[in-house]
Amino acid sequence: MPALQVSVIGSGVEHEARAEQVGRLLAERGVVVVTGGRDEVMAAASRGAKRAGGATIGILPTETRERLNEWVDHVVVTGIGHARNLAVVASGDAVIAVGGRYGTLAEIAFALTLGRRVVVLEPGWAVDGTLRAQTPEEAVRLALEGLP
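^ that's the sequence the OP posted. Answer follows.
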């Protein structure tokens, strides 16, 4: 069976420290971290995973690898712009949202539509059907709960 994958979504430099913790905690549990492959929360989660010896996947909206963060092991170039948000959350067995703006909100909606467990690390979007976590540790525990 392939390794579990958790998508870490979000944005905002003010959320980077918590996103890095989430990435580290996931990698310490052998989970592959999936992100949108760019900066801020995406780079921080990937950095945390890599520093813990984990693997990362970045799914880019562009037709090239431009703006790819340096902590991505495997890159998917989509050329589909914001529609890549669906691929990011569909690639995870669960989703953790850290901060974010409208793109994150769209990803949360896609993930819930696909039946993925979505954990919002506070403060974050208040969306029915999501789980709420106060700490990175709680977010990772809730995301992995019940997964093989």
